[in-house]
Amino acid sequence: MSLFKQGRYSGYLRPISYIIDLIIINGIAVLYLLKGKDPIVFSVVISIGWILLSVYSQFYEVYRYTRPISILSLIVKQFILFLLVIFAFSGLYHELHLYPRPIVKYALLSFLPIIIFKFTIYYLLQKYRTSFGGNYRTTVILGVNKKTLALDNFFNKNPEYGYSHKKTFNLKNKMHSLEDCFQYVLEEGIDEIYCSISELSNSQIADIVDFADNNLKILKFIPDSKEIYSKKLRYEYYDYIPILTLRNIPLEDSVNTFIKRGFDILFSSFVIVFLLSWLTPIIAILIKIESKGTIFFKQSRNGFNYKEFDCYKFRSMMPNKDAHLYQATRGDQRVTKVGKFIRKTSIDELPQFFNVLFGDMSVVGPRPHMVSHTTMYAKKIDKFMVRHFVKPGITGLAQTSGFRGEVETDKDIIGRVKYDIFYIENWSILLDMKIIIQTFINAIKGDDKAY
């Protein structure tokens, strides 16, 4: 039975998934792509390639707590890499006469059933847990505070994740001892132990680790008040010395950087050709009719690695000497009538797609601040400079989460930094797509902080 308690849903699920996916990609290749040609060389190369890619992209690393958006991200990454492998094979092995268009169609035809199968298994397992009480992990929590109570509540209110929470132990004031906890875990056959670091001493943590190791129990830790353990720590060795990296940034991976830059070029080119090409003359005329001055407004901002660049907008204010020092505020007299409309609909930001095309910005990322504001916030707001680990964006997670526009209090900029850091540490192309769609919806509805 231990085979079914380790890893994920079942010890058999990963190999079954591998086999089914390999049958799909090879079967569709024989029926559609190869059409009577000898499939042996293609099948061997593609099967080995699929397995190696799956290990690299962690395509089968789907757990009971994995979110659907994360599964979609894995699928997109695997699809792109698989497509590149097939193109490379077709370029090296000319005997099969494989051409780009059929290759793309073959990849799409292969991934459709793979996607259906992957999500079917994911949701069937959730249904199995909620309806039949199967595939459960029993849990206990050591320590009582806000975070452990929140975890207790999560376990009890989300049965689809497959956790059956049995007990939370209060180790303060000698209400429970570690020996009581250990005895309970053994008697009840508990699968996973969750510990609050802030509630335990170093010696207690060492005792719990020893107990879990010696009794084959899964041990997990809940972050302490410093939240260092809430990071996606990367564990690696320098020779035989273990090293932990505090912040893992997906966009430092060359493949992810290539994907994001490719998307930025395609998306910005589309907007420039099909939208700005005809909208710019109209906006220019409206701006000129209402006030004298330039059509575009240029402002120095800090970008990737704190480097300054010129950020472009359609001018929405009367020309004034304070434009580079003060943000627009609610009811700001500097904003023109045309400016009020283009700010409300975010049209004023559209020239920044040229910044994206030139490489200074990305479509999605932390919004860049004026240089004077960056200097100010860097001194007073903790972790503010982390935002400069990636390129700034036209829109971002913070902007779609209620932290757009004027910074009225420190709470606004702290919230913005919090969402920006989450984005940096959890980037995916699907998260970018979600933010873009939400930005478009907000532009149509009108954002209360767009003034």
From TrEMBL:
It is found in: Membrane. It comes from the Bacteria. Residues 260-444 form the Bacterial sugar transferase domain. It is a multi-pass membrane protein. Keywords: Membrane, Transferase, Transmembrane, Transmembrane helix. The chain crosses the membrane at residues 12-34, 40-59, 71-94, 106-125, 265-287. GO terms for cellular component: membrane. InterPro entries: Bact_transf, EPS_sugar_tfrase. GO terms for molecular function: phosphotransferase activity, for other substituted phosphate groups. The keyword Membrane applies. The keyword Signal does not apply. Belongs to the bacterial sugar transferase family. NCBIfam families: EPS_sugtrans (TIGR03025). This is Putative colanic acid biosysnthesis UDP-glucose lipid carrier transferase.
